[in-house]
TrEMBL record:
Pfam families for the chain: Thioredox_DsbH (PF03190)
A single BP term in Gene Ontology: carbohydrate metabolic process
Record-linked Gene3D superfamilies: 1.50.10.10, Glutaredoxin (3.40.30.10)
Signal sequence range: none
Protein name, UniProt field: Thioredoxin domain-containing protein
Domain Spermatogenesis-associated protein 20-like TRX: 2-163
Domain of life: Bacteria
Length: 679
């Protein structure tokens, strides 16, 4: 019989709806139930594409004996971290503080008041490798709760007090300086492995936000080292098994095998990774003209539209790592890996040999059970491009016949905002209006479904039905970022207006008026044991840095001084953390580059259908000036403040390059505009 999760809209929660565990969603009634029964709460947090979440569910939550013990001694609460990042953040901070590490599934035992006292991540069904079994953990917690309640209460209280005391206040730190940025770059050069192009470490996540900083720093300061590092990272990722060499798009991360050989990916594909990396490669192409960057940007954009776009026009959250291998087994990576025999079946003997050589497929295999993950050679020029293109097309068609990984159809506002920005810019750079249309479709969905009549955001929707969870700071910031990118690309002022509504909420609801510090939840949101506040980047830009960037861009488009002041105060955290931990505040460093450059404001005035207007507009969009904003439209447009007071020049379309609404002499020449935006 299905449990309470059967009523959820989250695909992750629905995956547990038939568990024998008597799951509750995160709601007040669950904690009241625990209080009445005088039992602890067991909190399990994960997400639908999480491989080890599926493993623990199969091993423990689907086991009737384990479930019976849980139901007797606990109230069990299941949370989708993608729907409730605030809950995840608060308790993950406790897990990491107590154990020195974190991850998903996250397992937390707490009092009925929500105060945590015992933590972990994945627990196996039997004790192994020094790790207790999940049943042992359950029994130990139950015994402590019943026989050592005072001790449990003391631990829970201390942890809660420690968490509550971790508030950040950096409003007095001042804005980042040239020295801040230079020291951050120096630290990054120490972290890079020049031989491989990757950052050091066995687990390699795509450092998209750091690369944005490197590209912007090169554009502003002329740093050759920054550009070389960005090119090295992008080249290493694109040629490795992190990138789906057949279908485009990026997997979540790769691991360095202990015995050598190619990097081994964790095969889930996340919308946020692909949106961020699509934009990174488009920006790398803009800076260098790299054909590899162009191909990866377009293939990643096409992957998002082809495999993640929902019927409503938004973008789904993720594709699972696991899928049916054709024999009924659910296996990680089955959709993506190849054996020589499979290549021969699809391509024939001769082309299969070429494909095996090109993609690194061996008879022994480089992954599991004789299969190989695909990667590219270091030098593509020695291969026949037309023949490789034919092989690629046939492999993609054959792979489409395999059982596909499950898709999490949940539409997350923040990640769709990132996708809107990426697709709008990529479509504009490469003259792909279909990609711009896809960005507009997702933006329309966000306005129509996720924004209420007060411009308050809901975090998620699914199948056209909005979820009940309030948007957090990253939702407001990243959706505003997407709208601002659309305004620059399309010249439609409505997107600037919508961004302003969201950023007004950021100032009022998410910003500490005295310090300028930002919180991840609104002032009127549900109160947890701590109000989450994290300025460091994780898989996506922190809400803090993303808000600073959107506030700065909006101020550049409109001249709104309160928004610029809020951005500058928020960037104090970059001055504090950037030189010490640049890999964890890359987006903040990128925003700081825009602040140091102005950012520049480019007003293009002229009829939209005039080729001269289009040429100036394209030149402005392709400029590498960090964080530059672009407004295009008829002179004296009421929708775009940057165009006000900017007339045509001798009756011709013209471009004005400004900082703080103070402009240089206008030009009608795209080449002169390009020069003005490059120095």
């Amino acid at each position: 019989m299905p449990n309470r999760l059967a009523q959820a809209t989250s695909p992750y929660l629905l995956q547990h709806a038939d568990n024998p565990v008597d799951w509750w969603p995160w709601e007040t009634d669950a904690f009241e139930k625990a209080r009445r029964r005088d039992v602890p709460v067991f909190l399990s947090v994960g997400y639908s594409a999480c491989h080890w979440c599926h493993v623990m569910a199969h091993e423990s939550f689907e086991d009737h004996d384990t479930a019976a013990y849980m139901n007797e001694h606990f109230v069990s609460v299941k949370v989708d971290r993608e729907e409730r990042p605030d809950v995840d953040a608060v308790y993950m901070e406790a897990v990491q503080a107590a154990t020195g590490q974190g991850g998903w599934p996250m397992s937390v035992f707490m009092t009925p008041d929500g105060e945590p006292f015992y933590f972990g991540t994945y627990f196996p069904p039997e004790a192994r490798h020094g790790m207790p079994s999940f049943r042992q953990v359950l029994e130990g917690v139950h015994n402590a709760w019943t026989s050592r309640r005072d001790e449990v209460g003391e631990v829970a209280g201390k942890i809660t007090r420690d968490l509550a005391g971790r508030e950040l206040s950096t409003g007095d730190a001042g804005t980042p300086t040239e020295e801040t940025q230079a020291l951050a770059l120096l630290q990054l050069t120490r972290d890079i492995d020049p031989a491989s192009g990757w950052f050091k470490g066995d687990t390699k996540f795509p450092p998209s936000m750091v690369i944005e900083f490197l590209l912007r720093h090169h554009a502003r300061a002329g740093s050759v080292a920054a550009l070389e590092m960005a090119e090295g990272l992008c080249g290493a990722m694109a040629r490795s098994s992190l990138y789906d060499q057949v279908g485009g798009g990026f997997h979540r991360y790769v691991l360095t095998p202990r015995a050598g050989g190619p990097l081994v990916p964790h095969f889930e594909k996340m919308l946020y990774d692909n949106a961020l990396l699509c934009r990174v490669y488009a920006h790398l192409w803009r800076a260098t003209g790299s054909e590899l960057a162009r191909r990866v940007a377009l293939e990643t954009a096409d992957f998002m539209v082809r495999e993640l776009r929902t019927n409503e026009g938004g973008f789904a959250s993720a594709l699972d790592a696991d899928s049916d291998d054709g024999t009924g087994r659910h296996v990680e990576g089955a959709y993506y890996v190849w054996t020589p025999a499979q290549l021969r079946e699809v391509l024939g003997e001769e082309d299969a040999g070429l494909a095996a050589h090109y993609f690194g497929v061996t008879e022994k295999g480089t992954f599991e059970e004789g299969a190989s993950v695909l990667q590219l050679p270091q030098h593509e020029g020695v291969f026949d491009a037309d023949r490789i293109a034919s092989i690629h097309t046939r492999l993609l068609a054959a792979r489409a016949e395999r059982p596909a990984p499950g898709r999490d159809d949940k539409v997350v506002a923040a990640w769709n905002g990132l996708a809107v920005a990426a697709l709008a810019e990529t479509g504009a750079y490469f003259e792909r209006p279909d990609l711009v249309d896809a960005a507009i479709g997702a933006a329309d969905l966000l306005v129509r479904l996720h924004m209420d009549d007060r411009a308050r955001l809901s975090r998620t929707s699914k199948d056209g039905q909005v979820g009940s969870n309030a948007g957090v700071l990253e939702d407001y910031a990243d959706v505003a970022e997407g709208f601002l990118a659309l305004a620059s690309v399309t010249g439609e002022g409505v997107w600037l207006e919508f961004a302003g509504f969201l950023l007004d909420h950021v100032i009022v609801q998410f910003t500490d008026a005295e310090s300028g510090a930002l919180y991840d939840t609104a002032g009127d949101a549900e109160q947890l044991i701590r109000r989450p506040q994290d300025p460091t980047d994780n898989a996506t830009p922190s809400g803090w840095s993303a808000a600073a960037g959107a506030l700065l861009s909006y101020a550049a488009q409109t001249g709104a001084q309160p928004h610029r002041t809020a951005a500058e105060r928020a960037l104090g955290v970059v001055k504090a953390l950037g030189p010490r931990a640049p890999r964890f505040i890359g987006w903040g460093l990128a925003v700081a580059e825009a602040l140091l450059d102005g950012p520049r404001e480019v007003a293009i005035v002229g009829p939209g259908d005039d080729p001269a207007t289009k040429a100036l507009h394209r030149t402005a969009l392709l400029a590498t000036a960090p964080g530059a904003v672009v407004a295009v439209g008829a002179p004296e447009s009421d929708e775009l403040p940057l165009l006000s007071g900017r007339p045509l020049v001798n009756g011709k379309p013209a471009a004005y390059v400004c900082r703080n609404f103070t402009c240089d002499t206008p030009t009608t020449d795209p080449d002169r505009l390009g020069t003005a935006l490059s120095g």
